[in-house]
């Protein structure tokens, strides 16, 4: 009797396991409307020298179910440039584009100065505030390194 009950339990468990494998994990619910994600969300260039040009590409992705329009890309100062072509400003659901960012390190007042800059991305998501990408670097004069 116990053996028969054990066989039934094993058969039910095997069947449910094979169903779980066939179905896979539950699908993620699509975000309603346009939705921007940035990969990576921030970046630290680490230690560098003054008077350098540092660059990084960020992936802007629309994870929503409606078209995302990148209305404006701006930076916190003139030493940072974010380059996005006009034709890359409209992203269909699931689409992505690279945002090329360049940070120019200037002369620093003290050794190991932590520099923090921002790139602001404004979209049609309906949020009041833009998405902010934070950039950091520890800058030293050539003789301090």
Verbal overview:
It is built from one helix and nine strands, in the order αβββββββββ. With 145 residues, the protein is α+β, with helices and mostly antiparallel strands. The protein has one domain (36-144): Sandwich (Immunoglobulin-like). The strands form two sheets. A five-stranded mixed beta sheet has the order 2-9-8-4-6, with no helix packed on it. The chain has a four-stranded antiparallel beta sheet with strand order 1-3-7-5, with no helix packed on it. Mean pLDDT is 84; it is low at 1-26.
Secondary-structure blueprint:
Layout: H1 2-23, E1 36-39, E2 42-49, E3 53-62, E4 68-75, E5 80-83, E6 90-91, E7 96-104, E8 113-123, E9 131-140
Parallel strand pairs: 2-9
Antiparallel strand pairs: 1-3, 3-7, 4-6, 4-8, 5-7, 8-9
Uncertain ranges: 1-26
Structural class: alpha+beta
Rg for CA atoms: 24 Å
CATH topology (fold) name:
Immunoglobulin-like
Secondary structure tally, helices: 1
- Strand neighbour order, sheet with most strands: 2-9-8-4-6
Order of helices and strands: HEEEEEEEEE
In the CATH scheme, the class would be: Mainly Beta
Overall number of structural domains: 1
Distance between the termini: 79 Å
Give average pLDDT, whole number: 84
Give the beta-strand count. 9
Principal-axis shape equals elongated
CATH superfamily: Immunoglobulins
Helix proportion range: 10-25%
Q: Report the CATH architecture.
A: Sandwich
């Amino acid at each position: 009797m116990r053996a028969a009950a054990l066989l039934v339990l094993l058969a039910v468990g095997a069947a449910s396991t094979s169903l779980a494998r066939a179905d896979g994990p539950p699908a993620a619910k699509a975000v309603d409307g346009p939705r921007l994600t940035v990969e990576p969300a921030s970046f630290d260039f680490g230690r560098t020298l003054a008077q350098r040009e540092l660059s990084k590409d960020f992936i802007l992705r629309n994870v929503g179910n409606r078209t995302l329009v990148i209305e404006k890309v701006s930076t916190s100062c003139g030493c940072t440039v974010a380059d996005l072509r006009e034709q890359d400003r409209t992203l269909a659901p699931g689409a992505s584009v690279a945002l090329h960012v360049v940070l120019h390190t200037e002369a620093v007042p003290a050794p190991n100065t932590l520099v923090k800059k921002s790139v602001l991305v404004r979209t049609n998501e309906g949020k009041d505030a833009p998405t902010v990408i934070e950039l950091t670097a520890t800058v030293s004069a050539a003789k301090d390194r």
